[in-house]
Amino acid sequence: MMNETIADTKAYIGMWVTEDGYIRHELLPNNRYDEARGNRKHAYQGSYQVTGNHIDYKDDTGFTADGEFKDGILYHAGMILYKEN
Prior knowledge:
This is Protein Atu4866. By secondary structure, the chain is mostly beta strands. The protein contains one helix and eight strands, in the order αββββββββ.
Protein backbone atom coordinates (compact mmCIF):
# COMPACT_ATOMS: atom_id res chain seq x y z
CA MET A 1 0.00 0.00 0.00
CA MET A 2 1.51 3.33 -1.04
CA ASN A 3 0.06 5.45 1.77
CA GLU A 4 1.12 3.27 4.68
CA THR A 5 2.24 5.16 7.76
CA ILE A 6 5.23 4.22 9.86
CA ALA A 7 2.72 2.88 12.42
CA ASP A 8 1.35 0.51 9.74
CA THR A 9 4.77 -0.81 8.75
CA LYS A 10 6.31 -0.79 12.25
CA ALA A 11 9.48 0.55 10.57
CA TYR A 12 10.01 2.77 13.62
CA ILE A 13 11.29 -0.20 15.67
CA GLY A 14 15.06 -0.07 16.01
CA MET A 15 17.87 2.37 16.78
CA TRP A 16 17.60 6.04 15.81
CA VAL A 17 20.69 8.25 16.13
CA THR A 18 21.68 11.87 15.62
CA GLU A 19 24.21 12.49 12.86
CA ASP A 20 27.03 12.84 15.42
CA GLY A 21 25.90 9.69 17.26
CA TYR A 22 25.58 11.56 20.57
CA ILE A 23 21.88 10.79 21.09
CA ARG A 24 20.55 7.31 20.45
CA HIS A 25 16.90 6.27 20.81
CA GLU A 26 16.24 2.56 20.73
CA LEU A 27 12.54 2.04 20.03
CA LEU A 28 11.69 -1.45 21.24
CA PRO A 29 8.82 -3.58 19.90
CA ASN A 30 7.07 -3.53 23.31
CA ASN A 31 6.44 0.27 23.09
CA ARG A 32 9.33 1.02 25.44
CA TYR A 33 12.38 3.11 24.56
CA ASP A 34 15.90 3.43 25.89
CA GLU A 35 17.78 6.66 25.20
CA ALA A 36 21.54 7.02 25.45
CA ARG A 37 23.38 10.36 25.49
CA GLY A 38 27.10 10.39 24.86
CA ASN A 39 28.73 7.92 27.23
CA ARG A 40 25.55 7.69 29.36
CA LYS A 41 23.86 4.46 28.37
CA HIS A 42 20.25 4.24 29.57
CA ALA A 43 20.10 8.00 30.23
CA TYR A 44 16.32 7.99 29.81
CA GLN A 45 13.81 5.19 29.56
CA GLY A 46 10.07 5.18 29.13
CA SER A 47 7.18 4.33 26.89
CA TYR A 48 6.15 5.57 23.48
CA GLN A 49 3.11 5.43 21.23
CA VAL A 50 3.17 5.78 17.45
CA THR A 51 0.03 7.03 15.69
CA GLY A 52 0.34 7.40 11.95
CA ASN A 53 3.70 9.19 11.54
CA HIS A 54 3.59 10.84 14.98
CA ILE A 55 5.35 9.58 18.13
CA ASP A 56 4.57 10.51 21.73
CA TYR A 57 7.17 9.77 24.41
CA LYS A 58 6.67 9.57 28.17
CA ASP A 59 9.76 8.84 30.22
CA ASP A 60 9.63 6.99 33.51
CA THR A 61 9.84 10.28 35.45
CA GLY A 62 6.69 11.60 33.72
CA PHE A 63 8.40 13.95 31.22
CA THR A 64 6.65 13.98 27.84
CA ALA A 65 7.83 14.85 24.34
CA ASP A 66 6.81 14.08 20.79
CA GLY A 67 8.11 13.86 17.26
CA GLU A 68 7.28 13.18 13.63
CA PHE A 69 8.60 10.66 11.14
CA LYS A 70 9.02 12.12 7.66
CA ASP A 71 10.78 10.49 4.71
CA GLY A 72 12.54 7.97 6.96
CA ILE A 73 13.83 10.61 9.40
CA LEU A 74 12.67 11.21 12.99
CA TYR A 75 12.28 14.87 13.96
CA HIS A 76 12.16 15.05 17.75
CA ALA A 77 12.58 18.03 20.13
CA GLY A 78 14.72 20.01 17.68
CA MET A 79 16.86 16.96 16.86
CA ILE A 80 17.09 14.98 13.66
CA LEU A 81 17.57 11.24 14.09
CA TYR A 82 18.34 8.68 11.41
CA LYS A 83 17.60 4.97 11.58
CA GLU A 84 20.61 2.70 11.84
CA ASN A 85 20.73 -0.23 9.44
